[in-house]
Amino acid sequence: AAERRTSVATARATTDAAHLAYAGGVVAVGASIVLVVLYAGYLTRAIVGPVRRAAALTGRLAGGDLSARLPESGVGEIGALQSAFNVMGTSLERSRDELARLAEEQAALRRVATLVAQAAPPDDVLAAVAREIGQLLPADYAVIGRYDGHGSEFMNVASWSRVGDPADLPARLSIDGRNVISLVRHTGRPARLE
Predict the structure, then answer these.
(1) How confident is the model at residue 57 (pLDDT cuts 50, 70, 90)?
(2) What's the rounded Cα separation, in Å, for the pair 111 and 117?
(3) Please, are residues 173 and 181 in contact by the beta-carbon 8 Å criterion?
(4) Bigger pLDDT: 130 or 170?
(5) Contact, 82 vs 72, CB < 8 A?
(6) Burial (0-12, 13-18, 19+ Cβ within 10 Å), 42
(7) Residue 160, phi then psi, degrees to nearest 5
(8) What Å distances lie between residue 93 and 67, 83, 90, 99, 108, CA to CA?
(9) What is the dihedral of CA 43, 44, 46, 51, to 10 degrees?
(10) Is the pLDDT of residue 142 over 80?
(11) Residue 130 CB neighbours (<10 A)
């Protein structure tokens, strides 16, 4: 009877231990699954999401939208990718703007060269040069002129004005005082004044 009680108690303890081990295994597997799901969510948010955004914005950039930029919120390689993407976009924008500026300059040169090739009168060629220079530069007016034999006056040969009639510009300008014309005359170099 004592052995039977001991055997039943041992069997009960073994069954309880097996149930406890089974429950612990189920809890451990469930916790592992939850951890794997959380880690997958983290990877998706931290790596896959930014890479997908970069891929989508790369498509926009390739389609000509050079203003597309990524928010630089990532760390490590993702942050480096975002930064490199933005630098690339800025560089492409700068290159496009420079190319457009060069194309405008080339078109202006072609228009003037066409007039020269057609043997247009010098006044027409000089007026075209003044107009093209004025339109290429952010200037309100452009004047082409020459200094008189004494170097005391600047004579307006051709002019262009963004505002008003270029004929309103004086035909002769004095070299007295501090102005661009006198600076160029005295230094023999390009000059700029605000």
Answers:
(1) confident
(2) 10
(3) yes
(4) 130
(5) yes
(6) exposed
(7) -140, 145
(8) 8, 15, 5, 10, 23
(9) 120
(10) yes
(11) 22
Asked if 151 and 130 touch (Cβ cutoff 8 Å), the reply is no
The C-alpha atoms of residue 5 and residue 185 are separated, in whole angstroms, by 123
Other CB atoms within a 10 A radius of the CB of residue 144 amount to 15
Q: Hey, is 142 helix, strand or coil?
A: strand
Q: Tell me, what amino acid is at 2?
A: A
CB atoms within 10 A of CB 86: 16
Q: Residue for token digits 């390739």?
A: 62
Radius of gyration of the chain (CA): 40
Dist. CA 53–CA 59, nearest whole Å:
10
C-beta of residue 74 within 8 angstroms of C-beta of residue 82: yes
d(CA 23, CA 7): 24
Q: What does pTM read for this prediction?
A: 0.59
Residue 108 is which amino acid?
A
Tell me which long-range contacts 165-168 makes (C-beta under 8 A, separation of at least 24).
Answer: 166/130, 166/141
Name the band, by pLDDT with cuts 50, 70 and 90, for residue 96: very high
What pLDDT is stored for residue 110 in this prediction? Answer: 96
